[in-house]
Amino acid sequence: MSIAGKFLAELKQESANTRLMLAAIPFEKASFKPHEKSMTLKALALHVAEINGWWNECLVQDELDFSKGSGEKRVINSTEELLAYFDGLLAKSEAILQNAKDEDFAKNWTMRNGDVVYFTLPKEAVVRTWCLNHMYHHRAQLSVYLRLLDIPVPGMYGPSADMQ
Q1: Distances, alpha carbon 68 to alpha carbons 39, 65, 80, in Å
Q2: In 63, 118, 150, 157, which residue has its Cα 20 to 30 A from 125's Cα atom?
Q3: Can you give the pLDDT of all 164 residues of the chain as single tens digits?
Q4: How is residue 107 annotated by DSSP?
Q5: Residue 90: helix, strand or coil by DSSP?
Q6: Integer Cα distance of 155 and 163 in angstroms
Q7: How far does Cα 91 stand from its chain's mean position?
Q8: Please, where are the H alpha helices in the chain?
Q9: Residue 151's closest CA among 161, 159, 139, 164?
Q10: Phi, psi angle pair for 64, to nearest 5°
Q11: Going by C-beta distance under 8 Å and a sequence separation of 6 or more, which residues neighbour residue 157?
C-alpha cells in the first residue's frame, strides 16, 4: 500500500471518530472554558474541525509562513454548520491524498514566521504530526470539555463510560 493510501485509511477512520465528537458539541455552551488559559468550547471545536483542512498546507505546499497571514476565520454558529465545515474539509483532504505520490512525502516542508524558521521536516513527518496527531490531541481535549459539561462522551475505540 502506498504512503498516501495508509494515511487516507487512517484519516477516514479517525475522521469518523472525530465527527462523533464534533456532533456532540452543544453550541449553547460555546463560551465554556474549563480554565482561564483554555480555549472556549466553540474555539476548540472549530480548531478540531479545521485541522482536516491542513493537508493542503502540509502536503501540497512546501511551507507555512505565518507572516503572510492565516486567511479569514470561519464563522460557525451551530453543530450543523460545524459538521458541514468538517465534512467539506475532509472531502478535500481525501482528494489530496488520492492524488499524492510516495515521493511527495519525502520532500521537505518548513514552518516559519518570515525569517524565523521553526523547523523543516519531511512531509511524511509533518502530516503525521500536524494533520493527524494534532487532531487526536485536541479531540481528546474536547472529550474533557464534554465530561465537565456532563455531556455524554462518544466512544472512539469502543464504548465510552456514557455508552455502556
Answers
A1: 24, 6, 31
A2: 157
A3: 999 999 999 999 999 999 999 999 999 999 999 999 999 999 999 999 999 999 999 999 999 999 998 767 889 999 999 999 999 999 999 999 999 999 999 999 999 999 999 999 999 999 999 999 999 999 999 999 999 999 999 999 999 999 87
A4: S
A5: helix
A6: 7
A7: 13
A8: 3-23, 41-51, 54-55, 79-99, 123-126, 134-148
A9: 161
A10: -125, 120
A11: 17
Residue 151 to residues 14, 60, 88, 144, 146, Cα–Cα distance (Å): 21, 38, 26, 10, 5
Under 8 Å between Cβ of 62 and 120: no
| Range 145-155 burial, b when 16+ CB lie within 10 A, else e | bbeeeebebbe
> Is the distance from CB of 102 to CB of 59 less than 8 angstroms?
no
Question: 3-148: what fold?
Answer: Four Helix Bundle (Hemerythrin (Met), subunit A) (1.20.120)
For cell 479517525, the residue is 14
